[in-house]
Write a structure and sequence with these properties.
Layout lengths: L3 E4 L2 E8 L4 E2 L3 E2 L4 E9 L3 E4 L8 H10 L10 E3 L5 H4 L2 H7 L4 E5 H11 L5 E4 L4 E5 L2 E7 L9 E5 L4 E5 L19 H19 L3 H11 L6 E4 L9 H14 L5 E8 L5 H16 L3 E5 L5 H10 E7 L2 E2 L2 E2 L1 H12 L6 E8 L5 H8 L6 E2 L3 E4 L4 H19 L3
Parallel strand pairs: 6-7, 7-8, 8-9, 13-14, 15-16, 15-17, 17-20, 20-21, 20-22
Antiparallel strand pairs: 1-2, 2-5, 3-4, 5-6, 10-11, 11-12, 12-13, 18-19
The chain binds MU-OXO-diiron.
The site of MU-OXO-diiron has 8 residues, from α2.
Length: about 400
């Protein structure tokens, strides 16, 4: 384990988490996640963001600090850009090792230090415009960026190296291994991290898209040479690439997203799937790209990422006990919570002895600003005329998506 120099006396440290455990207790991370911290050394030493005691993260961090001759006891200031426990879970233990450390965060962050960790001394609240002089020319500047991802969040800026420490902002799922910088990964690896940054955004950040846009406005005057998030790749070669990507994601919330269709389906005995195949035929005839996920077989984390970036949705599920197929009800609920707004939507499905999904669906999607095509339902297996109609519905949805401006 080693520290990665970003510039003179500015280092990236990271703990790779490789676990079956779920991120935030909800989201699968089959390819891991990195918890990045940073060290800035002047005459005094600042550590920016910490870790939780998860998959040996404190030991990983300790080993990386040791590689540059620093121990936890040497840290003068701990800057907490964000208090979510993936970055602070080990705070009480750290403070016990280093009681003299001064913990710096926004006023709301300091309140969370007290409530989560019962630490009441050695705390300093900062706001936008405040600075911390570490000596030897190293000065950290603080910029409040609320709700990227919690209300207390801020970013820290080191102007000599042009490094912006952004915590969750511009982050991604996916562990890093023994490389951290954007110029160290191949095109194929970037493709992987792009998918994982979309999934991270859709799962963690999407509800706060308005605040992402505000945060980007606040940093646009800075001459950023390195974007240093607390999850995923550190962007030193093309720092604005990840910022622009995040802005694009933020705009999916209210503007048209990608001209793609996310198909999400569940079927008990194959009758809804038969109908869906006809819809897919119609979509393919119009040449609109689509993704397809089955619930509950595939985790809602992936469903959410596909739905968030796509302008069109097909939701195919049968009636189950007078209501929606439960895994789809859950997927729609998650979409609602994560602000998957403004989609062109087709819902289809089979029913057995009586319907009911239609009524529940209509109530569930209220407030989502979805433009819903007329639903298509059928009893039991779809007949020939149903299949013709379903194919036409697929075409209609694809045309609506193609026509978006
Ligand atoms: Fe990576 Fe919102 O914590």
């Amino acid at each position: 384990m080693k520290a990665y120099p970003i510039a003179d006396s500015v280092f990236c440290l990271h703990a790779d988490i490789d676990t079956d455990d779920l991120f935030e207790g909800i989201w699968p991370i089959p390819h891991g996640v990195s918890l990045n911290s940073y060290l800035v050394k002047g005459e005094k030493i600042a550590l920016l963001d910490l870790v939780r005691d998860w998959f040996g993260a404190p030991t990983q961090l300790s080993d990386e600090l040791a590689s540059i001759g620093v121990s936890f006891k040497d840290i003068d200031y701990l800057i907490l850009n964000h208090l979510e426990p993936d970055h602070t879970g080990w705070l009480a233990e750290f403070k016990a090792l280093n009681p003299k450390v001064e913990i710096i965060s926004t006023a709301k962050g300091i309140e969370l230090v007290k409530s989560f960790y019962k630490i009441n001394e050695g705390l300093r609240a900062v706001k936008t415009g405040d600075t911390l002089d570490l000596g030897a020319g190293k000065i950290l500047h603080f910029i409040e960026t609320p709700n990227v991802h919690w209300p207390e969040t801020m970013m820290s800026w080191e102007p000599i190296s042009g490094t912006l420490f952004t915590c969750d902002g511009f982050g991604s799922f996916g562990k890093l291994g023994d490389r951290v910088f954007d110029d160290q990964f191949s095109a194929l690896e970037h493709e992987f991290f792009e998918k994982e940054s979309l999934r991270y955004y859709a799962n963690i950040v999407s509800s706060f898209s308005v605040f992402v846009e505000r945060a980007v406005k606040k940093i646009e005057e800075l001459n950023v040479k390195c974007v240093a998030p607390s999850h995923g790749i550190v962007w030193r070669k093309q720092p604005m690439k990840i910022v622009e990507r995040y802005l694009k994601y933020a705009r999916y919330m209210n503007g048209p997203a990608e001209k793609k269709i996310a198909i999400i389906w569940g079927s008990m005995y194959g009758n809804t799937r038969k109908g869906l195949d006809a819809v897919i035929k119609g979509i393919e005839a119009e040449g609109v790209p689509y993704s397809i996920r089955r619930v509950p077989n595939e985790d809602v984390s992936y469903v959410l990422a596909d739905a968030y970036e796509s302008a069109g949705l097909v939701l195919a599920m049968p009636t189950y006990e007078y209501a929606m197929f439960p895994p789809m009800a859950y997927a729609i609920d998650i979409m609602k919570r994560k602000h998957v707004h403004g989609k062109q939507v087709l819902r289809i499905g089979s029913w057995g002895w009586v319907g009911g999904a239609k009524k529940e669906f209509e109530a569930a999607v209220e407030g989502l600003k979805w433009t819903c095509l007329e639903m298509k339902e059928w009893a039991g297996a779809p007949g020939e005329s149903d299949l013709v109609e379903l194919e036409a519905k697929g075409r209609e949805l694809a045309k609506a998506v193609k026509g978006l401006t």
